[in-house]
Design a protein that fits this description.
By secondary structure, this protein is of the alpha+beta class. The chain contains 6 helices and 12 strands.
Length: 284
C-alpha cells in the first residue's frame, strides 16, 4: 500500500481527519491554488555575511541586476527579535499547517517535512515572515498587488530540501511568505512558492528572485516564474485574447521570469499591464 494512502487511512480511522478551511479573514494570506500549467511556453541586509548589491534599473522591458554575489549563502537572522527554535509544533489557530508566531520557520520546516504532512487534513504547508526587511505591502484599499515566485515541478525526493531552503529565505526576510503542497506525490512534481508584496516593484521582485535562487544553490540550472495573485483569482476567460484570425489565444500568466544563470528579469509587458489593471478592480 502506498505510504501516503496508508497515512490517510490511519488519519481517518483515528478520527484525526480535519476538513480544509480557508485562512482567517483577519490575516492576509496568499492565494490558494497553483499548478505546473502556470508557465507560458514562449537586497540584502547589513548583518548577513553574504554581500549582495542588487542595484536594478528598468531598460527596454528588462530589469538588470548590476552586481550579485551569491557564492556564500548566509544563515538567516532576524533584526528585531530572537526566534524560538525549540517549539516546532503547528499553530492550532491557523487554517494552514504553519509554525507558531515567534518561532523559526526553518526549525519548523526541518521538524515537519511537507511530504509527511497529510493532504487530507491541510491544504497548504505555510511559512510567514516578520517582515522586518521587506517593503510594506500596499494598503488593501489600493488594490491586490501581491505575487509569487514559483519553482515548478519539484520531485518528491527533493521537495523537503527545497522547502527548508525557501523557509531560510522567509526567515531572513528575503520573501514575505512561502507555501508548498502537503504530502507530495503530484504527477510531474510540486511547486514551491514564495511571495512578494508588490509585483509593480520590479526591483524588489528581482531582489527576491535572486535571493531565493541563491538559497536553492543552483543559479545555473534553476528557473523561476513569477505570477501575480490576481491571475490566480480572476475569471479564467480574462487570460485570453482574440488573435488576428478571430480565435482565442492565452495571455502569458507569468509577467516575470528569472532564467537559469540570468541576473535580470525577462518581462512580458502585455501580461504585466493586464495584472496592473486587474489589481485595482473591486473584485481583487
Amino acid at each position: 500500500m502506498p505510504l501516503q494512502l496508508k497515512r490517510t487511512r490511519e488519519m481517518l480511522a483515528s478520527g484525526a481527519y480535519r476538513a480544509s478551511q480557508p485562512p482567517p479573514r483577519d490575516e492576509p494570506t496568499p492565494s490558494t491554488s497553483e499548478g505546473p500549467d502556470l508557465a507560458p511556453k514562449d537586497a540584502p541586509s547589513e548583518d548577513l555575511p553574504r554581500k549582495e548589491t542588487v542595484a536594478a534599473q528598468e531598460k527596454d522591458a528588462v530589469v538588470v541586476a548590476e552586481t550579485v554575489d551569491a557564492s556564500a549563502p548566509a544563515k538567516a537572522t532576524i533584526d528585531t527579535c530572537q526566534l524560538d527554535t525549540t517549539r516546532v509544533s503547528n499553530d492550532p489557530a491557523h487554517a494552514w499547517f504553519t509554525h507558531l508566531p515567534g518561532t523559526s520557520p526553518v526549525a519548523f520546516a526541518e521538524a515537519n517535512p511537507p511530504t509527511a504532512v497529510c493532504p487530507m487534513t491541510w491544504p497548504w504547508v505555510y511559512a510567514r515572515c516578520l517582515g522586518v526587511r521587506l517593503p510594506p505591502a500596499p494598503p488593501a484599499h489600493e488594490g491586490n498587488f501581491s505575487g509569487k515566485w514559483m519553482l515548478m515541478s519539484v520531485p518528491n525526493e527533493t521537495l523537503d530540501k527545497r522547502w527548508v531552503q525557501a523557509c531560510v529565505a522567509v526567515e531572513a526576510g528575503e520573501v514575505s511568505a512561502a507555501k508548498v503542497v502537503p504530502g507530495g506525490g503530484a504527477m510531474g512534481g510540486s511547486p514551491v512558492i514564495a511571495y512578494t508584496n508588490d509585483f509593480r516593484d520590479a526591483e524588489d521582485v528581482l531582489r527576491a528572485g535572486l535571493a531565493l535562487r541563491a538559497r536553492f544553490g543552483e543559479p545555473s540550472t534553476v528557473k523561476l516564474l513569477y505570477k501575480p495573485d490576481v491571475f490566480t483569482l480572476c475569471d479564467p476567460e480574462r487570460l485570453f485574447e482574440t488573435g488576428p484570425r478571430g480565435g482565442k489565444r492565452p495571455i502569458p500568466k507569468c509577467p516575470y521570469q528569472l532564467l537559469p544563470g540570468a541576473f535580470e528579469l525577462k518581462v512580458v509587458s502585455k501580461s504585466l499591464t493586464l495584472a496592473k489593471e486587474m489589481a485595482v478592480e473591486p473584485w481583487a
